[in-house]
What we know:
Layout: H1 2-21, H2 26-43, E1 47-50, E2 53-56, H3 64-83, H4 87-92, H5 94-118, H6 124-133, H7 140-148, H8 155-178, H9 184-203, H10 206-217, H11 223-241, H12 246-258, H13 263-288, H14 305-323, H15 328-337, H16 343-354, H17 360-388, H18 394-397
Antiparallel strand pairs: 1-2
Amino acid sequence: MLLELALALILAKVMDELFIRKNQPPVIGEILIGILFSVSLFILPEKVNLFNYEFPVSLEISHPAFDFFADMGILFLLFLSGMEINFESMKKSGRAALLTGGMGVFVTFALGLLFGIYFLGFTFQQAVVLGTIYTATSVGVTVRTLMEMNILRSQVGIVILTAAVADDILGIILVTIVLSTGEIAELTAGLLIFFLVLYILSKYGIIKKLMVHADEFIHTPFGLVSFSVGLMLLFAYFAEVSKIAGITGAFFAGLFIGQSAQKRKIINSVKAIAYSIFIPIFFVKVGTLVDLNLLSSFNFYLLLLIPLVFAGKMIGGSIGSKMGGLKLKDAIRVGVGMTPEMEVALVIASLAYGSNIFGASMGSQIITVTIMYVIISSMAVPFILKYLYKGEEPSTQSQEVAG
Length: 403
């Protein structure tokens, strides 16, 4: 098990560096390492004899310890997503952002649902999960492109940034419902209890006060960081006993802690823990879920999801931002900027795989298509955005949002 973790971390970080140098998302490199791990199972011997000693070289990627590290990576990803949400920035373009995020989620979800039922013959539950996978937006690629063009603080840039936050929250609520376990009555009770507790915590600022007291009381090195990670795990546990996905609890833990004054003291340390160990292992694990044995029986209808999701996210985002008051030209730019997907889509796809909702074969194929969408959208969006801004002066592009 130590060999697998060592190789995963070292190779993932080497690939991170190579992809960053090429201005590509490092996540893709980590996923490719996971795919290579899968391939190695077919080409590497179990042991190599060296100096009359047998060294095991076969990679045991399905080991429970590897899965544990990957599961922690999922929790940290959602925890950090919650921590980095800035409600103040949302107020600057609140209506446009909410409509953009809401319409993007609705159109993409509806298309995924209908495609699953009518093209793939899925059950309603399977189709709902399929639609949910592609609702989340990752605007890292878009943000980098807008920064290069010096228009991140323009109306389009701010709407994209804040709409992605609305997207995340709506996506998490959908995940909470579709990946919940238990009977309907039990699930309804669990959801009510969970969100009632969240409401009480929010209304009375309990987590903010708790963080202040913890900061005053704990003076050991990184003590506040450990305390915050403990809260994340506690929230995830509470979500799971409420028959809700643990990632929902982790997300809301991050959301509450992110609104506290202590956020700036801990966020860099949490990122160091998450991105140096757990999150890379999660993305390597995602890569290992791509089963190359299934290529011969691959359902090529699934490939239609790539243009379908791209169109759904672009059309939904464009309609929402136009309804929010943007000009048609800018609304289309926002729609394109909302098309990339990354971490959260892969998290939902891997959780669906682990829940065996689609079965092992179809689950692996859906993860493969999701990875393909991540790669294609992250490469296509910069070119499309630059084309849509072609010929415009920077002064026109950098207009700030007025309220």
